[in-house]
Amino acid sequence: MEYFYIPELSAEIKEIEISGSEVRHMVKVLRHKPGDEIFATNGRGEEFRLIITRIRTNRAGLKVVEVSKGEREPGHKVALAPAVLKGDKLSLIVEAATELGISEIVPFVSSRVIGRLNPVKLRRMEQVAVSGLKTALRTVLPTIKPVRNWNEFLDRFSDYERVVVAYEEEKDRGVDQVLEPDAKSVLVVIGPEGGFTPAETEAMTAAGGRLFSLGPRRLRAETAAVVATALCLSRLGDLK
Amino acid sequence: MEYFYIPELSAEIKEIEISGSEVRHMVKVLRHKPGDEIFATNGRGEEFRLIITRIRTNRAGLKVVEVSKGEREPGHKVALAPAVLKGDKLSLIVEAATELGISEIVPFVSSRVIGRLNPVKLRRMEQVAVSGLKTALRTVLPTIKPVRNWNEFLDRFSDYERVVVAYEEEKDRGVDQVLEPDAKSVLVVIGPEGGFTPAETEAMTAAGGRLFSLGPRRLRAETAAVVATALCLSRLGDLK
User: Fold this and answer.
1) Does B105 share its domain with B219?
2) Average pLDDT value over all residues in chain B
């Protein structure tokens, strides 16, 4: 199924003209013609069934046939907070986590963070979030929050019903021991390549975070992020 | 913790001289000196504590101080069978799945497979399996099986106590409904980018495979493979 991201769409709109890369993809790659039916989301919770009414160079007219809420959003809000990582790792994480069903990305900086987020990387994260949205046929584009420094990050813990932190030194408790299956909103925290300091772990615990283990094998941060997201969504009943 | 892969090691060996890329990494990157202690695995279930006795250009002498079984292997055998995928996707999957704890990779070809496995890609898969082994501080290097054609692949189902197949059209059952927590050996099957045909799904079911869902959101094959592996290992109690 082809699925387009057209943020200009809203429930009030009956007809719209669009331009840009989605039109190029529609016409040049998928070879759509006037009269064809397509599906799109505005990334704000709505799905649209559309008919292509006309195609001009790089522009297409669309008529809204049906608006719905879609049926594929998870029942729980799961936000992912990865430390800023080196290279392109955050993009890998954002794309997979968006497919899985997260609602927010909350990048943060802790003392052992060595990666940097520049505008190019941020733009790339936004792009792959859109890719993940379209792959997964979702209707809600995850929000990418501004990078939080450590204290700002801790202050945010109270925005969520439950905060769980993947932590290498935790030996006893897995996801099922720290996350209730009926938690309405969850923040899943993944540290940087070098892990958290003991003081940071204490501060997160004091702020209400619960430490959990992903098993005795050491994981790359990007593997840990995707797996922790999946285990939390599964625990909440949103991966079946 | 630094961790080396030295397949020449075995429980009978007391001293050994090694050469090649592991030595370069040991000396040039990690700047080890004679007298330093390092840890290594032979990838066949054993972990070694070693002392560096001497360093020559590209060669190092090592003395075995202690041999153990390591403590980080999962308690269950989980094999991953991904369809041959396009580009470098199998390598991404092999590396993450190795970190997570799989015992085997069983690539197969079904009717909708469009990717190819050439010797370069196979070599790359072997390399990232070693990377995953070292990242995860494992002692067992997963076996990468030869590519199976469809009938050979089905014949292998009987090698495992349970075979589970991630399938987009399955709507009811998640991993927990198809996998018993005490299964000793499991094969986790992931289809190609275009999915399985109905006839293939029937054939897998007839051969004892159980279909399960990863939720209503469409996932890239590489995301599905890593997530399915994680959910199965978690179900077996091996990710906490």
Assistant:
1) yes
2) 96
Q: Using CB atoms, which residue from A100, A138, A215 is nearest to B240? A: A215
* Domain membership of residue B62 as a residue range: 3-68
CB-CB under 8 Å, A214 with B240: yes
Q: Which of B47, B68, B89 is the last residue of a domain?
A: B68
B83 and B53, same domain (yes or no): no
Close Cβ partners of A28 (under 8 Å, ≥ 6 residues apart) = none
Q: Which pLDDT score is estimated for B1?
A: 79
Bridge partners for B162 per DSSP: B186
**Do B74 and A215 make contact, defined as CB atoms within 8 angstroms?**
yes
Tens-place pLDDT, residues B130-185: 999 999 999 999 999 999 999 999 999 999 999 999 999 999 999 999 999 999 99
Tell me if A218 and B101 make a contact (CB, 8 A cut-off): no
CATH code, domain with B81:
3.40.1280.10
Question: Tens digit of pLDDT for each residue in A35-82?
Answer: 999 999 999 999 999 999 999 988 999 999 999 998 999 999 999 999
Query: Do A234 and B233 lie within an 8 Å CB cutoff?
Result: no
Among residues B182, B145, B24, B222, the alpha carbon closest in space to that of A223 is found at B222
As to burial, measured by CB atoms within 10 angstroms (0-12 exposed, 13-18 middle, 19+ buried), residue A36 is middle
Same domain membership, residue A208 and residue A226: yes
* B47 and B139 housed in the same domain: no
Cβ neighbors of B45 (< 8 A, separation 6 or more) are B69, B70, B73, B139, B140
Closest partner CB to A238 (pick from B99, B215, B227): B215
Q: Is B170 a domain residue?
A: yes
From chain A, pick out residues whose CB is under 8 angstroms from the CB of B133.
none
CA B99 to chain centroid: 7
Q: What is the ipTM of this complex?
A: 0.96
Domain final position from B25, B47, B68: B68
**A240 contacts in B (CB within 8 Å)?**
173-177, 212-215
